[in-house]
Amino acid sequence: MGAEVVIEGLTKSFGRQTIWRDVTLTLPPGEVSVMLGPSGTGKSVFLKSMIGLLKPDRGKCVINGVDIVRCSEHKLYETRKLFGVLFQDGALFGSMNLYDNVAFPLREHTRKSETEIRRIVLEKLEMTGLAGAEKKLPGEISGGMRKRAGLARALVLDPEIILVDEPDSGLDPVRTTYISQLFIDVNAQIDATFLIVTHNINLARTVPDNLGMLFRKELVMFGPREVLLTSEEPVVKQFLNGRMDGPIGMSEEKDTAQMAAERAMFEAGHHAGGVEDVTGIPAQMQPTPGVPTRQGAIRRKDRVMKILHTLPPAAQEGIIESLTPEEQRHYGVSPRRAVPTGSRHAAAVTQPMPAHHQGQLPEDDIARLPQSAWPGRSESTDGSRGPGAGEA
Ligand SMILES: Nc1ncnc2c1ncn2[C@@H]1O[C@H](COP(=O)(O)OP(=O)(O)OP(=O)(O)O)[C@@H](O)[C@H]1O
Description:
This protein is of the alpha/beta class. The chain is built from 14 helices and ten strands. Helix 3 crosses helix 4 and helix 4 crosses helix 5. Adenosine-5'-triphosphate binds next to helix 1.
């Protein structure tokens, strides 16, 4: 099973420029999470901070009991071995063929024989759909193949956590869907924890178990996908619909006057971009037939059902509707009805749970936009308060 990553109060600045502050979230083991955010909000800086390539100013990032913000160089080196990273362009060595590129980490970091290396490299190339391409140079293959080769290389040291930086950059929508399918299939095969940063709305809507968003130097939300996909938060709605109408502007943030002027323009009929209002929760991508069932998805069901009563009503409804009738019976829930107070699950969540375990966070740690109440933050149907974002 992949490693859990517990991030608490993480803050990163370059000189006087704060990139983001007080980011708190948990990546549940073996689940796929996506971090969204407008350009320049520090998504890549976030990934680099997670593997210790950049040093945050404050906060913790704990993996298998090691806080990589504060640990020794030796521990950091050891903990980094848990990560596989897929950079935007695959970061392949241009003068090496795919075989040698994928073999590189094994030759650098292990004492495996060339026979053993060959077995692993061919297995990972096969896994990523590149069997037969081992002699090609990176310059001779398409962008999609380069990304798959980058993923094959990220897999050779059996990572527990896979970080992916903008997998859709430079790819057409069809190739983006293929690489998304590959992430789901690889996740099903090795049960690693995935964090993908992207702007791609399709990927965000259909791939992850959990979705988060960075904006205005804060983590706006992080939680089960259903929370963001049903959110009324203007910045989240605007981003998921790719529209001009909303708080995100050309560079990053609009001021009130600009927002009001634009609102008037859109009300007068000016096209705000985007195709139509995309709302609701589309089905999540599943492993290709023949690939094992995702263990992370099975664990997620139990985890999310335990925090269900803390989520906003629309997210609760979406989660319940995604269950099969058998699962609904198992969890004692039915559609168009929130978690019954006093039910097995309502009871389960009132049990003391270790902080950050199962993605559970104290309500004060729930990430939200400053000065903005959560939509539906009023009493939820079971009488409990708060939507439980910040929890994954
Ligand atoms: N090493 C660095 N030194 C100083 N500033 C940096 C450094 N790395 C990144 N930044 C700044 O941090 C900010 C966030 O950059 P980052 O690349 O993480 O954004 P992003 O959300 O990944 O953007 P995009 O979606 O366009 O890739 C930018 O203003 C960038 O200039």
